[in-house]
Design brief:
With 258 residues, this protein is of the alpha/beta class. The chain has 2 domains: 1-40; 47-257, TIM Barrel (Alpha-Beta Barrel), CATH 3.20.20. It has helices at 2-39, 68-77, 88-93, 95-103, 123-141, 157-165, 185-193, 211-224, 232-235, 254-257, and strands at residues 47-48, 54-61, 83-86, 107-110, 147-148, 169-170, 175-176, 201-205, 228-229, 241-243, 248-251. Strands 2, 3, 4, 7, 8 and 9 form a 6-stranded parallel sheet that branches. It has a 3-stranded mixed sheet with strand order 1-11-10, with no helix packed on it. A two-stranded parallel ribbon has the order 5-6.
Length: 258
């Protein structure tokens, strides 16, 4: 055995080295493949990179209607224009509320026609569903939506790519009030004020039990911190931008955009 090692040591060392090199190569390549796959995942816009303290308040409207006018009145008191994502079936039930939102200066955009999990639909079904809601909103407001928020925050590459092909910006959020949990007014206030940063998109719901009570304190707290408010269409960049791995929208430098 010793003679064998002595005679073939160089060959054995070369073989071990070769095996190690191959193993490292494939491990590295595998890691690169994972990173590449992760980097190319299609994302909606969660928030926007901003130098100034500006944010957007958004409300999803899918079910009840009992506090819509109250929300309009609260936002009007502070001269804030917000973004409402409405479901097509909600438009069918409450066209007067959709018109009231629009007349008060708020954006009314698309939250699907009937609140499905969009990832369970085919590309054609996504197109038909989104277009149906667009048609209903446009019929009431005269403005065709171009922002879309997936129900349940549920999306995949097909959903995002299909929306973009339709000229829609898919919108998510980076601050969730969790108002639907009905855990109390103060919980909503603390949660939102503790998470908002420049360029944030805040998620509320209409017909959530404590939202009308919490909203004035949220607004006043953010104003004290120096924040101003714009609807989402004025917060996002429409072109020459990229998204980082968190869904933060970042404007391209002039040299990148050329």
């Amino acid at each position: 055995m010793i003679d064998f090692w002595s005679k073939h040591r160089r060959w054995l060392l070369s073989a071990v080295l070769f095996i190690l090199t191959v193993a490292i190569f494939y491990t590295t390549q595998s890691g690169q493949a994972v990173l590449t796959a992760s980097a190319t995942r299609q994302l909606p816009i969660y928030c926007v990179e901003k130098d100034s303290k500006v944010c957007s308040l958004s409300f999803d409207a899918a079910w009840g209607n009992e506090d819509t006018q109250q929300l309009i009145d609260i936002l009007g008191k502070y001269s804030i224009r917000a973004t409402f994502f409405v479901v097509g079936e909600w438009v069918d039930k409450y066209p007067e509320s959709v018109k009231a939102l629009h007349d008060a200066g708020h954006e009314v955009h698309n939250h699907s026609d009937n609140h499905p999990h969009m990832t369970e639909l085919t590309e054609q079904q996504i197109i038909e569903n989104v277009s149906a809601c667009d048609d209903k909103i446009e019929a009431v407001t005269g403005v065709r939506p171009f922002l879309f928020r997936p129900p349940y925050g549920d999306y995949n590459d097909q959903v995002i790519n299909t929306l973009r092909s339709m000229g829609h910006y898919p919108i998510q959020w980076d601050v969730d009030s969790l108002d639907w949990k009905e855990s109390g007014t103060q919980d909503i206030i603390d949660r939102v004020l503790g998470k908002v940063q420049p360029g944030s998109i805040v998620l509320f719901h209409n017909a959530a039990k404590y939202t009308p009570q919490a909203l004035p304190s949220v607004i006043e707290g953010l104003i004290r911190e120096g924040y101003s408010f714009v609807p989402i269409s004025e917060l996002i960049y429409r072109e020459n931008y990229e998204l980082d791995h968190t869904g933060r929208q970042i404007p391209c430098a002039p040299s990148d955009a050329s």
